[in-house]
Amino acid sequence: MLHLSAHEALSGVSGSVSLASWIFMLVPQLIENYQLGSAEGVSLAFLTVWFIGDLANFVGAIWAGLVPTVIALAAYFIIADAVLITQCLYYNHVNAGEQSAGGFAQGETAREDQPLLGRRPSDIGLPGSRRGSSVSMKRRSSTLGEPTLSTIPEDGGYTRPWVKNTLAVLAVCAVGVAGWAIAWRAHLWKPTPEDGDSRNTNRKPGAEFLGYLSAVLYLGARIPQILKNFRERSCEGLSLLFFILSLVGNLTYGGGILFHSVSRQSLLINTPWLIGSLGTMCEDILIFVQFHVYKSKELAESDAAIE
Fold first, then answer.
1. What local confidence, expressed as pLDDT, does residue 278 receive?
2. Where are the domains of the chain?
3. Where is this region: Disordered (predicted)?
């Protein structure tokens, strides 16, 4: 077995953890949408730009003649994106039809003196959705003689979210490390020479352009979601784990590059990807701030309504 230096091992492990994070990243949001029966919290513009970025990445990988595993992974991303977009379109269509048919949230009945068009959009809850404000939900439940949200545990009786998210991230990291170890032991993974990128003399400008384009699209994809959260002052309907795995994936991706080599040539070649990862991480952190601020605001409104 070939000798493996510490920085080569760290580079391989980081890259493998990054791949594991990206493979499982969309799953939490798919589950979140299914549990809510709604995709109202997800920006379709966000998913569409991301899908185009993955499509450019896939075509560029084929054009550049990259290794089959990279092409297969790019194809998986496209399929996963398509599944999430299809799910969102389905729920949006179903919920839009139910709203237009009844105009009332699940469990509500119309009063004869209540105008159909006199209700604010913020007071209309989608079936199975938690996106309605806690204050308005308390008001409706008390009117109907139902238990208010104050009697319902915050976590719905399940383990606290931060515990579940931490365990999920640790599990994904363990899968990544185990995958790399198995590949190394089976001689399916070998460290890339530090001058490996500079030896590629048959470069294809079109493929490189698609690679840069995908990086730009990834960087800009989150902007519509950030703006949507800001306009609605809410992150309800979004899976926090989805963005946590994105952060872990980009962090370990950048770490894999830097652990591999910090030579001037390597940094110049990988600068666009490093900038893309850093920019995406900054956007994910901004979304984390939105989660914290809007959740705190909702809890304050809930406490005020109880008092």
1. 84
2. 23-109+117-131+161-193+203-306
3. 104-150
